[in-house]
Specification:
This protein is α/β, with parallel strands linked by helices and 283 residues long. It has one domain (2-281): TIM Barrel, CATH 3.20.20. The chain is built from 12 helices and 8 strands. Helix 9 (216-224) packs parallel to helix 11. The longest helix is centred in the middle third of the chain and has 24 residues, at 173-196. The protein is globular. The model has no long low-confidence stretch (mean pLDDT 96).
């Protein structure tokens, strides 16, 4: 049996992202999304979530390249005076690992993001992270403890079958292999901690190595090779709604998610579209 969760990241980042995610859900195959609770369009996203109850809304944890929930005075130096996390992932990752006392401030911010998500949405079935920072060694243990405390049943573990992806698309091959080594190592550690707390993840994941390079042919290739068990495939859709146009790759992903060929391929392979909500119910 093959089950597939199709997730849209960055819900709440902008009205353009919100529009892409809602269209991909209403007209396409997207079943799930992840909310950035401190970004400018989060209130609109929360309202849209209530209008679309079948859309399972998780938390897109932000500790890099985004805004904090807590005031800068409470969690400096992990944010600047404006409450923004660093835009330099490698630099901030090193700081999180080596700076004494910083993990207590990260814990406070992660807890605040979870609690704000619950206030906005009313439930929380899954957590993932912006740039997959949630599996960082300084963050994963705290996140998993808090997920257990707040009874969050699922988290994302970004360990993608890289050789399957390379058979579909050889572009950026060296970068994909490096990503695979890093994220497989981090995910293996996080999986052990999560399983010890009874927190689940999917068996397989796609989207990591093809981020911002997803095409209809790539998605059809994944569907053709989808293994048995539970898989998550994640996207970053957005739509041009007349203000600031989103990136071409995000607009393309919206079209892929609403593609008739993609829907027909899922049906032909007898793949069941599902959500983390359903996974939690069947444990």
């Amino acid at each position: 049996m093959r089950r597939l969760i199709v997730n849209g990241d960055d819900f709440g980042h902008s009205r353009e992202v919100n529009a892409g995610i809602i269209r991909a859900h209403r007209e396409g195959v997207l079943t799930s999304t992840s909310l950035m609770v401190a970004e400018p369009a989060r209130d609109e996203a929360a309202a849209l979530a209530k209008e679309n109850p079948a859309l399972d809304v998780g938390l897109h944890l932000v500790v890099c390249m985004g805004r904090s929930v807590l005031p800068a005075s409470k969690i400096a130096p992990i944010v600047d005076e404006a409450g923004r996390f660093s835009d330099y992932p490698t630099l901030i990752g090193m700081r999180y690992f080596f700076t004494p006392g910083i993990r207590e401030k990260l814990e406070a911010e992660i807890r605040a993001q979870i609690e704000l998500h619950l206030k906005l949405i009313g439930y929380l079935n899954h957590i993932d992270g912006h740039l997959n920072f949630h599996v960082h060694p300084a963050i994963a243990p705290t996140l998993i403890e808090l997920a257990h405390e707040y009874k969050v049943p699922c988290i994302r573990l970004p360990a993608e079958p890289v050789f399957t992806t390379l058979r579909i698309s050889r572009e950026r091959a060296a970068a994909k292999l490096i990503e695979a080594i890093i994220f497989r190592t981090l995910s293996r550690r996080a999986r052990r901690m999560a399983e010890a707390q009874g927190i689940r993840s999917t068996h397989w994941l796609f989207g990591l190595h093809q981020t911002h390079h997803i095409s209809e042919d790539y998605v059809l290739g994944v569907i053709e090779r989808l293994p048995g068990g539970l898989t998550e495939m994640y996207f970053h859709p957005a739509m041009d709604i007349g203000a600031t146009p989103p990136t071409p790759s995000s607009q393309r992903e919206t079209e892929v998610l609403t593609s008739v060929r993609v829907r027909e391929a899922i049906a032909a392979r007898e793949i069941e579209l599902t959500t983390f909500r359903e996974v939690a119910r069947t444990r």
